[in-house]
Amino acid sequence: MAHVVILGAGTGGMPAAYEMRDLLGREHRVTLISENPYFQFVPSNPWAGVGWRRRGEITFEIEPYTKRKHIDFIAQRADHIDAERNTITLADGSSVDYDYLIITTGPALAFDSVPGSGPHSGFGKATHSICTIDHAERAHQSYLELLDSDNPDPIVIGAMPGASCFGPAYEYALIVLRDLEKRGARRKIPEFHFVTSEPYVGHLGLGGVGDSPQILARHLKEQGVQVHCNMNTLEVQDGKMLSERIDADGKKAAVQSFDFGFSMMLPAFKGVDAVAKVEGLCNPKGFVIVDEHQRSPKYPNIYSAGVCIAIPPVEPTPVPTGAPKTGYMIESMVTALVHNIKAAIEGREGKEEMGTWNAICLADLGDRGVGFVALPQFKPRQVDWYGEGVWVHWAKIAFEKYFIAKMKAGVSEPFYEKLLFQLLGITRLKSDAPPAAASH
Ligand SMILES: Cc1cc2nc3c(=O)[nH]c(=O)nc-3n(C[C@H](O)[C@H](O)[C@H](O)COP(=O)(O)OP(=O)(O)OC[C@H]3O[C@@H](n4cnc5c(N)ncnc54)[C@H](O)[C@@H]3O)c2cc1C
Q: How far apart are the CA of 10 and the centre of ligand 1, in A?
């Protein structure tokens, strides 16, 4: 009998638990550990940040659903992993032993890399985040306070140096603009700034995808947004952000400060403490080092997927940026690693699977949206498409309902989803991919 433990019940961890349970016979145990008792659908947080979604619509209690699938669930934070002894110590002091460990702990938010930044700064006017539902609710509150004011200060939205997840910053900026328009409040806001560490609009930590630079630049321009790229934000004070613009040679070109009444700045990510502290498991930022089979080279019974794994930036940029890890890409890592754990349990060496790391992303802009398909996510790509339309807005809403329903039903990849994507040449495993797509 093997005991497989999955640490972190997010976009990667929930499907990992279900897929692992499906692949293994009942003689094996599957345990899911996560610090919160609820699952949250992170891609809906930009909507929660303007009140278009309530907590109850995009979160649900995990245990009733995992129980039905014979997965043990423990709602505790892991504080320590002893990778030599295969033991995890939880926040309540109890411990859990494992034979195989899947780490899907997502990001820790590196507010400490920019002094004064983040919702916990204690400032009346802080730079908010929408990375968790708690943060999105606080951002919404702060946004409402700005709207209550007779003479609101500017809005500043964007991404901090070292950030890797840029898509939600664009989504949130354009959703806020749409919300202001709906409320008839756009003219009340004197200035709206988009401040980003990316070298150009639409870089997205990926060197752009299709026409992303042109499309996103046009949307921001049409809405009268002042855009600032290559911005190295140094410090946040109450209602003020201090940044410097870096030129292409990496030299300081200008110093700029932004007063704001409301701000949301996507922070840089790092690995969560319990994982980052494991000797030899992670890179200096605390991201788990994995091979092409999602396995730790140092600890062969530890696998990892999602935002918590180490991926180098796609290219050097004047202000540091990272590469995003997107939902479908994460699911492809998960599908590969559960097959690899099954192969390891059954002693079938040399039969390891590799995820395709394909990316399909839908970003809502309030009443329309932009979507991209990047096969694989990193260059060179076989498919590199970025498009826009009202249909993306509706597709994103449908996807939200679909993903939450899948997670409640306990299915990671229903056969019709697999079939549909296969017809489009999109697969999670390289072994299922059409020959040209599998060769990268
Ligand atoms: C605001 C936002 C919007 C996004 N929108 C999209 C999108 O539209 N499309 C897309 O493809 N990608 C999107 N992404 C990127 C990515 O898909 C998500 O970040 C995704 O949630 C990452 O999945 P994950 O499993 O790696 O981490 P998460 O979903 O964050 O899950 C990590 C889990 O681990 C738990 N955990 C952490 N530390 C511990 C610990 N010590 N002990 C126990 N549990 C722990 C956390 O509580 C959490 O439940 C978005 C990201 C953000 C931040």
A: 5
Any ligand 1 atom below 6 A from CB of 31? no
Q: Ligand 1 center to residue 224 CA distance, Å?
A: 31
Whole-angstrom distance, CA of residue 213 vs CA of residue 204 = 9
In angstroms, rounded to a whole number, what is the distance separating the alpha carbons of residues 183 and 364? 18
Check the CA dihedral 407-408-410-415 and report its sign: negative
Q: In the Cβ-directed half-sphere of 392, how many Cα atoms lie within 13 Å?
A: 19
Q: How far apart are CA 129 and CA 37, in angstroms?
A: 21
Which numbered atom of ligand 1 lies nearest the CA of 39? 49
* Residue 435: band (very low, low, confident or very high) from pLDDT cuts 50, 70, 90: low
3 state SS of 31: strand
Other Cβ atoms within 10 Å of 304 Cβ, number? 29
For the question of residue 282 being annotated catalytic, the response is no
Angle, CA of 294, 327 and 336, to the nearest 5° = 30
Give the pLDDT score at 440.
44
Contact between residue 431 and residue 353 where contact means Cβ atoms under 8 Å apart: yes
Length of the chain in terms of residues written: 440
Confidence of residue 436 (pLDDT cuts 50, 70, 90): low
> 70 C-alpha vs ligand 1 centroid, how far in Å?
24
Cβ atoms within 10 Å of 241's Cβ, excluding its own: 27
Strands 269-270 and 108-109: antiparallel
pTM: 0.96
Distance of alpha carbon 307 from alpha carbon 89, whole angstroms: 22
Is 361 known to be catalytic? yes
Secondary structure tally for the chain: helices H, strands E? 12, 23
Kindly state the DSSP code that residue 268 receives in the 8-state scheme: P
Best residue among 130, 176, 307, 377 to mutate for probing ligand 1, ranked by most atoms within 8 Å of CB: 307
